[in-house]
Amino acid sequence: MEYDIIEQVAELCFSGARLDIKLARAAKLFLEYFPFDGCAIYAWDDGKKAFLKKAHEGEGPVIELYGEGEGLPGMAKRSNSPVFACKKNASGISWEGVDDEGIQGCRYAAVYPLKDKERLLGALYLKSRRKPNIPAGKRRVLGIAALQIAVLYRGAELIQGNEKAHRELIEAQELLVKSEKLMALGDMAATLAHEIKNPLISIGGFAGRLKKHIGADSPSHAYVEQMIKEAARLERLMDGVISFIKDSSVDLKSDDLNDIFTDALRFFDDEFQSHRIRVIRDFHPGGLRVLADREQLKIAFDNLIVNAIQSMEKGGTLELSTCSEGDSAIAKFIDTGGGIEPRNMGCIFNPFFTTKEHGTGLGLPITNSIIMRHRGVIEVDNNPGIGVVFKVILPLTKG
């Protein structure tokens, strides 16, 4: 019978319940199998350097937090072994010079440090008003059951790690599927671009010559003009396709993100004025060093700025900023262009997807491709009816 608690705590380790539910059940089991009046289970927080209460059952006061050297848990941590307290009376809070409010009202306490081979995970705190009768054999079972709580903690950490790894695997699979689609599309687009662009150049060239021989008052003049415009538009589309599918390697060098951003903005002053767009610039002081191919990164920024301008044809505000978060440099493009239709959010990085009358649908896919080659990512925060935030995240470098 006395070994049943080991089996039951082991079963808790493999159950699918939340950690707090497992610990609460374990605390009850300790009071069922051992002659104590109260049981508290603490987790060690390495950041706070403290024991934090995670579960409590039974009578008597319970302390929510013990600092690194406080109370009986602190003593167990220092000695790296179980602590057994036996006071003369239940009125005091001290035992052998250690003050502990949690032992008030009790004469006996046992605190087991919960640990694995490498580190401290928490503490098991048991207390009783009367001296508990625990024979040597049962005390060994108590020690083994305490080890099981450490296994429970470690199992919860592993589950959390597995869940994170699973999420990352799903994200990697999604990226792989996108990459495979883009590769298939690239093969098709490369063939089409080769077969279409040369005839287009001829059509556009001959239409330009024809225009010279037709007077402005000729009924055919408008048709020739339209031919030239459409041929030019298709040439631009083919140029975009070639730019997108071209396997251009990046020449990454240490550069200042603020300087690249400023360089890209120089060409848009007239556009901002003509579209009545107020520009707010908030760049990180002192600069942000990133590994970048300046010309390619400028193309990516150009596309995001053009995208914002096109969304604010009747005016608005464009906020451009840079900052650092941890090991990353971040460039933000925040517009008030009304945002993206929610049904279109999953398509904005798909090649040739566009909601604009004269758009090619290649600006954002090209931008995403460039940022990926810079080992970065683009995040989109869409606010329908208000605007959209494009966030470019790049790794910082010390060089």
Rg calc: 34 Å
The overall strand count is: 15
* CA-based shape: elongated
H and E string: HHEEEHEEEEEHHEHHEEHEEHEE
Q: In percent, how much strand structure appears in the residues? A: 15-25%
Number of helices: 9
Low-confidence stretches: none
Q: Which structural class matches the secondary elements?
A: alpha+beta
Side by side, the strands of the main sheet go 3-2-1-8-7-4
Instruction: Give the overall pLDDT as a whole number.
Output: 84
Distance between the termini: 66 Å
Estimate the helix proportion, in percent: 40-55%
Question: Which keywords apply here?
Answer:
alpha+beta; 15 strands; 9 helices; 399 residues; six-stranded antiparallel beta sheet; elongated; 45% helix
Describe the protein's architecture and organization.
Strand 14 and strand 15 (387-395) form a beta hairpin. The chain is α+β, with helices and mostly antiparallel strands. It has helices at residues 4-14, 19-33, 71-79, 136-212, 221-245, 257-265, 269-274, 294-311, 363-373, and strands spanning 38-45, 50-58, 65-67, 83-86, 94-95, 98-99, 108-115, 120-128, 253-256, 277-282, 289-292, 316-325, 328-335, 377-383, 387-395. It contains 9 helices and 15 strands. Helix 1 (4-14) runs parallel beside helix 4 and helix 8 runs antiparallel to helix 9.
